[in-house]
Each structure stands twice: as structure tokens, then as C-alpha cells.
Design a protein that fits this description.
Order of helices and strands: HEEEEEHHEEEEHEEHHHEHHEEEHHEH
Distance between the termini: 32 Å
Bound molecules: 4-amino-1,4-dioxobutan-2-aminium adenosine-5'-monophosphate, magnesium ion
Helix content: 25-40%
Shape: elongated
Strand order of the largest sheet: 6-10-11-16-15-14-13-12
Strand content: 15-25%
Length: 457
């Protein structure tokens, strides 16, 4: 049976006979021995394999080839790692040639995106996806420990949660010649789902159903936005975590979000130490210290009105001039988090005009009980709110925003029958991966990025 290299380094027993399988990262030859660096993806470090250069398989041991090696663990004299493997048996499972693109030299992330099927053979992407895996596991850990129920919200839906018209359409109608109703409009009654359907932009509305019956719940799955944003923080397909808490207000919501982020940061510091050290050294100097400081921090909180007052004082430095009523731009968010408070910051009570229809209207009649969490480098990482639980206010708001009341009837039922105060938020999973790794571009923290013009693989 093969031993994973991670386990071998965690618990090395000099003299043991073990078998490892993996891919050759590099090979070095001297007169009397050949060294292979073998990596199996289980950890950042590769295992040094020491082999006799007269081994008949040695010519096939090139970068990228896959091997199975059996040998004896020996204390490594080189000091880089505790043990190395003195090979007694070597089998090349799959050859690789000089045209293998992942040779030792450093490649640009842009180039590696084009070969996303091979980039996971590099240190950087191995580290990214191990950290991503830790975060995914810890998300469930955090909510399950607190008694939240994981609901699987649908991917295909007829509800536009954000009401922003950014849904990808799902149809089997013939595009060249769709069926038409008597008025000449496309007849979606004849479409696959019997109505106009799309890919979900958020599982929130379905999570609210569960929070209105089963108590605290959360979703964790893919969401889609057909927004034409070509930025380092936007994807057309991204993963979102959306807890929804029953009998809760916006302050409970922020408390939960803060505990959640702190849990994830501490978990990555504890379980991802080797990969974090790599990011600290190669990608984002100071990353570990930043996360350690954050792990013991209290997040700042301020209203949108206060935030705009701060921004107006330094308006000169911004491309977009801040004023009350305008949405915060990424440059504003970053100034607030990076320079003003130098850490995570909740901004609450936004003008209702720039937020979604479901947010609870505050008593001032102008703002809603919204909360965004802004963090250094990434900007908005969480968006959430207390939900409008009052039937009349909610239906008025839907109409005011020009949304079709008929498609939200079921949502209004939650207010008609036993409504309760409740609140929730959405964490952009990839933005969280960016935040903890320091990776600059969101396309490099999801295995196969979907962006305008690109859905390869
Ligand atoms: O602020 P958003 O649009 O909020 C919602 O969707 C709510 N339904 C959440 C809720 O209250 N349950 O999105 C939430 C988060 C953002 O803060 C951001 O981190 C991320 O999702 N996000 C994106 N991430 C990558 N690419 C995109 N195009 C994103 N749009 C939003
Ligand atoms: Mg938002």
C-alpha cells in the first residue's frame, strides 16, 4: 500500500520500508547517485528519492513523469527535510517529455490559467487548493458545531434573489425560432421548466424558508452572476456560504459573521501552516503576521453615513467621488479597511436605493439594516442584512423596485404565516481564499474560473 508523503513527513520512522507514488518535480544527477524530488499533492514539500543511476528506469525519470518508488527511509543529511527515501524499487507509471509545460522555471499566473489542467502540479496552486479545502471543511465544522442545518439550495431557479437582473438563462427553446405567444413574445410556458428559468444568483431566499421553519440554516454551493465585470474580485461562477439565522437582528448577524471569519482564520493558521508559510514567503510578505493579528482582533463597526463622512474628507485621492447615496466603490472600501481602521470593518445601514428589496427598512425611512464586511486588500468579503419580516413593507418594496410581485408570492407567504425577525449573510468563498492566501486574482483561487469570454475545461 502506498504512503502519502504528508503522513511520511508527519511521522517519519527511519529504517521503515515504504512505497510512495507521485510525480517527479525535478531530477539531479551526480556520479554516484541520482536525486528525484517526488510530490504527490498531499503537502507542499516533495520527498527526496535517492536512486542508483544505473537503474534501468532512470532514463525515463523526467520532470512530470509519474512513479511508484519503494525504499528505506533514511535520515536526510541535507537538512532541508528530516527524511529521504533510498530507493530499492522504481517503476515509471507514466512518461513525460521535454514538452511538459510545468518545467522548473517560474511561469506567470496568466500562462498557468491557460493550462489549468496542469497548474495543480505547481507549488502555488497545490497550496491554494489545500487551503481552499481546509476552508471548505471548516465552514461545515463551524456551522455544524453551532447546530445549523445545511440545506441544498437549487442551482436552477425561477427566483432572482438579488433582483438585479444578473441571472444566466436556462432554456431548451430553439434560439433561432422560439415559440411565440399571440402577442409575439417568447412563450416560456413551452420551455423545459414551463417558465423562464435561470441559474441561481444566491440561495438566500430558499435559506429563509428553512430559517422560518427549521431554525438556523446555511447553504454552501455554487452561485452565478451574468455581470460583465472583468476584475480581480469577480467571477461569473463562484461559491457562496449563506447562513440564515432565526429570531435574530443585524447585530446578531454581525456577531455571527465575526465569529465565523475568526474561526476560519484560526483554522487556517493551525492546519495550513506549511502552505501559509509559502504564501508569506513567495506571494504576500507579512501574510502570517496579518492573520495572527486578526485572529485576536475585534472588528470595527460604523454606519454608512459615518463611512461617507470619512471618505469625503479624503475625496481627492479617489477616482469616484464619494457622496451620500452612492454605492461604495472598491477603492473606497479598501481605504476604509486598509488605512482608516487597518483591519476588518462592518459598514451598516446603507441607503435603501442601493440595496436589495429584502432588506429591513430602518425607522429613518431612508436606510436599511444592511451590513457589509470589508477587509484589507479584498474589500467587500461579506454582504448581509436583517430581512424585512413585515408583510406590507416587503410587498411595497418589491413593487417600488419594479419587481414582479407574482414570482415572490411564496416568499411573501413566509411573512403571512408566522413571520419572525431573521437575518443572514453571504460570504464570497473565493474572496475568503484570496484573503487568507494573499493571492491577487480571484481566477487563481478557484479550480476552473468562469469569466466573461471564458469557460474552458
Ligand atoms: O453582496 P451579495 O450580492 O449578497 C447576496 O448575494 C446575499 N443574498 C447574501 C445573503 O445575505 N445571504 O454577495 C455576497 C458575497 C459578496 O460580499 C462577495 O464576497 C461575493 O458574495 N460575491 C462575489 N464573489 C465573486 N464573484 C462575484 N461576481 C461576486 N458577487 C458577490
Ligand atoms: Mg454585496
Amino acid at each position: 500500500m502506498r504512503t502519502k508523503i504528508l503522513h511520511l513527513f508527519q511521522n517519519p520512522v527511519v529504517g521503515d520500508t515504504v512505497t510512495v507514488c507521485g510525480w517527479i518535480r525535478t531530477r539531479r544527477d551526480s556520479k554516484s547517485v541520482t536525486f528525484l524530488e517526488v510530490n504527490d499533492g498531499s503537502c507542499l514539500k516533495s520527498l527526496q528519492v535517492v536512486i542508483d543511476p544505473s537503474n534501468p528506469q532512470i532514463g525515463r525519470c523526467t520532470t512530470g513523469a509519474s512513479v511508484r518508488v519503494t525504499g528505506t527511509l533514511a535520515a536526510s543529511p541535507a537538512g532541508q527535510q528530516a527524511v529521504e527515501l533510498t530507493a530499492t524499487e522504481l517503476a515509471v507509471l507514466g512518461d513525460s517529455g521535454p514538452d511538459f509545460p510545468m518545467q522548473k522555471k517560474r511561469h506567470s499566473f496568466e500562462f498557468l490559467r491557460d493550462i489549468a489542467h496542469l497548474r495543480t502540479r505547481s507549488n502555488t496552486f497545490g497550496a491554494v487548493f489545500r487551503i481552499r479545502n481546509i476552508l471548505a471543511r471548516e465552514i461545515h465544522q463551524f456551522f455544524q458545531q453551532r447546530g445549523f442545518l445545511w440545506l441544498h439550495s437549487p442551482i436552477v431557479t425561477t427566483s432572482d434573489c438579488e433582483g438585479a437582473g444578473e441571472m444566466f438563462q436556462v432554456t431548451t427553446l430553439p434560439l433561432e425560432n422560439p415559440p411565440r405567444d399571440p402577442a409575439g413574445a417568447i412563450d416560456y410556458a413551452k420551455d423545459f421548466f414551463g417558465g423562464k428559468a435561470g441559474l441561481t444568483v444566491s440561495g438566500q431566499l430558499e435559506a429563509e424558508i428553512f430559517a422560518s421553519s427549521m431554525g438556523d440554516s446555511y447553504t454552501f454551493g455554487p452561485t452565478f452572476r451574468a455581470e460583465n465585470s472583468n476584475t480581480s474580485r469577480h467571477l461569473a461562477e463562484f461559491w457562496m456560504v449563506e447562513p440564515e439565522i432565526s429570531f435574530a437582528d443585524i447585530h446578531d448577524d454581525m456577531d455571527l459573521a465575526e465569529a465565523f471569519i475568526l474561526h476560519l482564520v484560526r483554522a487556517v493558521l493551525e492546519h495550513g501552516a506549511e502552505d501559509l508559510a509559502f504564501f508569506d514567503k513567495m506571494i504576500a510578505p507579512g501574510q502570517i503576521e496579518m492573520l495572527q493579528k486578526l485572529a485576536g482582533a475585534k472588528f470595527a463597526r460604523m454606519t454608512y453615513t459615518e463611512a461617507v463622512e470619512h471618505l469625503v474628507k479624503v475625496a481627492d485621492r479617489f477616482e469616484f467621488k464619494p457622496y451620500w447615496g452612492a454605492d461604495l466603490q472598491s477603492e473606497h472600501e479598501r481605504y476604509l479597511a486598509e488605512e482608516l481602521v487597518q483591519g476588518p470593518l462592518f459598514v451598516i445601514d446603507y441607503p435603501k436605493e442601493i440595496k436589495a428589496f429584502y432588506m429591513r427598512c430602518n425607522d429613518d425611512g431612508k436606510t436599511v439594516a444592511a451590513m457589509d464586511l470589508l477587509v484589507p486588500r479584498v474589500g467587500e468579503i461579506i454582504g448581509g442584512s436583517q430581512r424585512e419580516e413585515r408583510l406590507e413593507q416587503l410587498s411595497n418594496r418589491i413593487v417600488e423596485m419594479g419587481l414582479p410581485l407574482s414570482t415572490y408570492e411564496w416568499y411573501l407567504d413566509l411573512r403571512r404565516f408566522g413571520t419572525v425577525p431573521h437575518a443572514g449573510f453571504g460570504l464570497g468563498f473565493e474572496r475568503m481564499v484570496q484573503f487568507v492566501t494573499g493571492m491577487g486574482n480571484i481566477r487563481d483561487v478557484i479550480p476552473f474560473p468562469r469569466t466573461p469570454g471564458n469557460a474552458a475545461f
